[in-house]
TrEMBL record:
The chain crosses the membrane at residues 12-36, 42-59, 103-125, 131-156, 195-214, 229-248. PANTHER family: CYCLIC DI-GMP PHOSPHODIESTERASE PA4108, CYCLIC DI-GMP PHOSPHODIESTERASE PA4108-RELATED. This is HD domain/HAMP domain. GO terms for biological process: signal transduction. Residues 253-305 form the HAMP domain. Gene3D superfamilies: 6.10.340.10, Hypothetical protein af1432. GO terms for cellular component: plasma membrane. Pfam families: HD_5. It comes from Anoxybacillus suryakundensis.
Length: 502
């Protein structure tokens, strides 16, 4: 609640500063210096401005209470829902724009409508002795002052709300509202719009203010301003507007282009495409941002390489441990991984897909670590109960690999480990999946695993020759094994035989 109270205090100070600069500093000074009226009429106008200012404050305070309510609710309630937090954070990010809206509507209208109404009424009943034209000038001047005030308040509020938004995000993370925080990332004011409108207003505001002050002064002195004065005034005003538009466009496009370049490279990082911004063409702070981005990418690449080395080392240790436990299956996982990759190549897989397939295949039997020695190392035929234990190894393997953190690094390996004993006809294990419901890696590893099991020597039997193993694969093509995987694997074996002959 402390940060909320501090924000309210700063917003009040900002509003006071903005009001003094815009309404009192510019508006009242302009009225006093430009108007040539009696002192009693000037005093009456100042009183009208004071009463209108009070009405404006009341209306704007009500609007402020409505705008701040969702934020106040988050800081005052002991239990907040994710939806309440989301709307509060959206409101906090939109608050600078809401400030502009309040100044454009309740502020400007709350000030100008009562002032115009009271002034016209007093002129009509002959209490206030000023020309009606002054009311038109005042209305135009109030519009300029409101625009100035809105711009000042926008940037002051933008700076003030940042600590509050930061505190709200920390609060949201503590409550697990991560999705709500991500959803508010789309709430922002484009840099091009912010800079463009600011430069445009800064460029033409002094000119418009000077034109208004001069027009009021000359009108008060009874001079004819519709001769050559307005011709030059329009020319100067058009030149100022065109120059401001040009400056706003050049400046905003320069900043926007720099930001777009950085965002483009950052989006590549999100896709794990670690490309450096080699051409540092900037001569401002974006040069430092470019250097910082490149340092970040270098650090990510270095960390990513270490993670890959750690994962590969983990895989090697696990497969070595399994091979050391069962000497008769030593090298089996390595051969199955090589066969699986050859099938993957003929399916047109990418290098990244082949890497994941290799890792999944080399770990496919890791669950056998959890099988008791008297069953895993038994020389003779297994009993039904013993074979039931063996059938647990795909699930055990999946559970073992799930312990790796972060899980994202091994998530793609799990389906192949769990499903490499599934059958196309649904008679496999552990889930009895059918056809293409079996994950792709599982269908590939099943063929590679079966072939190596048939052609490898065991204590209780000698491995069969390649031709016999191929004939068994063809017999089970479309029932036990995926037909396309069998065809790809046999194509690999045939290519290997042709290479041996040549």
């Amino acid at each position: 609640m402390r940060i909320y109270d501090e924000t309210l205090k700063k917003l009040f100070i900002n509003y006071t500063i903005g009001s003094i600069l815009a309404v009192v500093g510019v508006g009242s000074t302009l009225m006093v210096m430009a108007l040539n009226i009696r002192q009693v009429d000037l005093l009456m106008l100042l009183l009208i401005q004071f009463f209108s200012f009070c009405i404006m404050l009341f209306i704007e305070y009500r609007a402020f209470q409505k705008d701040i309510y969702p934020i106040r609710l988050v800081f005052s309630e002991t239990k907040v829902t994710e939806e309440q937090f989301y709307w509060a954070l959206v409101q906090a990010k939109r608050f600078p724009l809401l400030t502009v809206k309040r100044i454009a509507l309740p502020h400007f209208l709350g000030l100008s409508i009562p002032a115009v109404g009271m002034t016209l009424s007093l002129i009509f009943i002959d209490v206030l002795h000023i020309p009606y034209m002054y009311v038109v000038y005042a209305l135009f001047g109030a519009l300029l002052i409101a625009m100035l005030h809105a711009m000042i308040e926008f940037f002051l509020t933008l700076r003030t709300m940042r600590p509050l938004i930061h505190d709200m995000m920390q609060m949201g993370r503590m409550h697990g509202f991560h999705e709500a925080i991500r959803a508010t990332n789309v709430v922002y004011v484009p840099m091009k719009v912010k800079i463009g409108l600011s430069v445009l207003f800064i460029g033409i505001f002094p000119v418009l203010l000077f034109v208004l002050a001069t027009e009021v002064k000359w009108f008060a002195e009874g001079k004819n301003t519709f001769s050559g004065y307005w011709t030059w005034t329009i020319v100067v005003l058009v030149i100022s507007i065109l120059f401001s538009l040009f400056a706003a466009r050049v400046l905003s496009e320069d900043v926007e282009r720099s930001i777009e370049d950085l965002l483009q490279y950052m989006s590549r990082v999100q896709k794990k495409e670690y490309e450096l911004m080699c051409d540092n063409v900037y001569i401002d702070e974006f040069s430092e941002l470019t250097n910082g981005f490149n340092h970040m990418v270098d650090a990510i690449v270095e960390r990513d390489e270490k993670n890959k080395q750690l994962l590969n080392s983990f895989i090697s240790v696990m497969t070595t441990a399994l091979d050391a436990r069962d000497e008769y299956t030593a090298g089996h996982s390595q051969r199955v991984a090589v066969y699986a990759v050859e099938i993957g190549k003929r399916l047109g897989m990418t290098v990244e897909q082949l890497t994941r397939l290799y890792r999944s295949a080399i770990l496919h039997d890791i669950g056998k670590i959890g099988i008791p020695d008297h069953i895993l190392l038994k020389d003779g035929k297994l009993t039904d109960d013993e074979f039931a234990w063996i059938k647990k190894h795909p699930v055990l393997g999946e559970n073992i690999i799930r312990q790796v953190q972060p899980i994202e690094e091994v998530q793609d390996l799990l389906p192949g480990i769990r499903s490499h004993h599934e059958r196309i006809d649904g008679k496999g294990y552990p889930d009895g999946l059918k056809g293409e419901n079996i994950p792709l890696f599982g269908r590939i590893i099943a063929v590679a695993d079966a072939f190596d099991a048939m052609t490898s020597d065991r204590p209780y039997r000698k491995g069969m020759n390649v031709e016999k193993a191929i004939s068994i694969l063809l017999e089970g093509r479309g029932t036990q094994w995926d037909a396309q995987m069998v065809d790809c694997f046999i194509a690999f074996l045939q290519e290997r035989e042709r290479e041996k002959v040549s």
